[in-house]
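Here we describe the complex-level prediction in full. Unlike the single-chain runs in Section 2.1, the two entities below were treated as one system.
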Amino acid sequence: MKGNEALAEAAIRAGADAYFGYPITPQSEVIEYLMRENPADRTGMQVLQAESEIAAINMVYGAAGCGKRVMTSSSSPGISLKMEGVSYIAGAELPCLLVNVVRGGPGLGTIQPSQSDYFQAVKGGGHGDYKMIVLAPATVQESVDYVKLGFELAFKYRNPVMILSDGIIGQMMEKVELFEQQPRSKEEPEWATVGKKEGKDSVIVTSLQLQSEEQEKVNLRLQAKYREVEKNEVMYETYNCEDAEYLFAAFGSCARITRKAMEMARKKGIKVGLIRPQTLYPFPADAISELSERMKGILTVEMNAGQMVEDVRLAVNGKTPVEHFGRFGGVIPSPEEILEALEQKIIGG
Amino acid sequence: MTEEIIIAGFGGQGVLSMGQILCYGGVMQGKEVSWMPSYGPEMRGGTANCTAIISDDQISSPVLNEFDTAIVLNQPSMDKFEDAVKPGGLLIYEENGMTRKPKRTDINVCSIAAYDESVRMNNTKVFNMIVIGGFLKVKPILELNKVIDGLKKVLPERYHHLVPLNEEAIYKGMDIIKSEHKAD
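The structure predicted for the assembly as a whole is:
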């Protein structure tokens, strides 16, 4: 199945209550698939093309406030438009799933694949001291699995979760195993605004606290939650790290291209491994720190000008040299040039 | 076995569906597959291409710079991908509309007059299946019945009565492909 279509089918199967979105290349197949599939007949899931991205994210805010499993998706410029809403959702501590099928920027940029929204996804994007849980699929299969996982994490922590995909993963076709249809939840969480019941207090969903002390309490609660997320939810994969002298660090589609570069390097006798963060927030800092102690150097490979490299450097904390290799603007790096960068920047440098 | 293929031509020649048919055929035969299209503005009326990878092992990169096989269906595609064939690899080109022959001598080159054949078959839509037939003759990486099963996945059900015609086109392609040059 095509990445975007598999992801859309996964939303139906994960028991989503609603999807609100607006088309944009290279993500449009998500909403196209959902419109064609008309899940209202299958599960009762509502699908609506909003009049804009801003409307879509505020529909998500509303549905999430009612305790519903709700999803939206877009590509980079559209995600920028949604960021105000995401900040409100994070502030109001509501669960939702966002998908960013990243294309090159800034501005309208290009429709070709990129990873230039890493900072936006893991460092904020919207205003205020908040965090999204960010999942980075490298295969169509992971795009599917992370929809289910994303909803689970969103509800576990009452926090927005983002799947940070890109034009490659969204557009490519691969073999995929879909999970069984999950029933839509009939539960009404106690924080959901579903009408005041007799004998119960009103539920108010808001991200507004005019008293500084009250707002600080919210911030402290959020920070405590993020520490829990960091403790429990880190996911990553390592390849060939047992005997490695050098290390690649890459996420998403770039990790697959880098894996090819690693295979080529191994054929030349270069002992290089690869770490692929599957969660970008929480970041596998401890794992990278540990690995860095026995590496002669680390090269991050990203389709951007050097974003995740900052988190890798923080994790390594000077224990070994960390360099970055990137192509951007929608240009996809080739395995050959990644290997060349390793030889020049790390082994030779 | 790993076969990394680039298929390139004009939009409308069935370039993207050729890759899909081969990949679905691969799935039917229990292979790992990956299909990555060009989705840029160029595919809208200009040149289109897709990368299809069929392998016994897990596939790492879905995007490549070098290929075991390049199937090029117009001159711009030959210009772009001739150099991307691995030494000893295969280049298949459609004769119609080409203004020059491939220059490389370190690769295997085959030509196929698929367009002319499709006109003779009174259905130019089977053009791409003729090319697939030619490819499978030179590199029989998939069983024919699995490719037909793959075709049934790509072809909407209302067109399934055309499956026998497409099968015939595959056989025609196998007959008419010509070897132009063996790798040095």
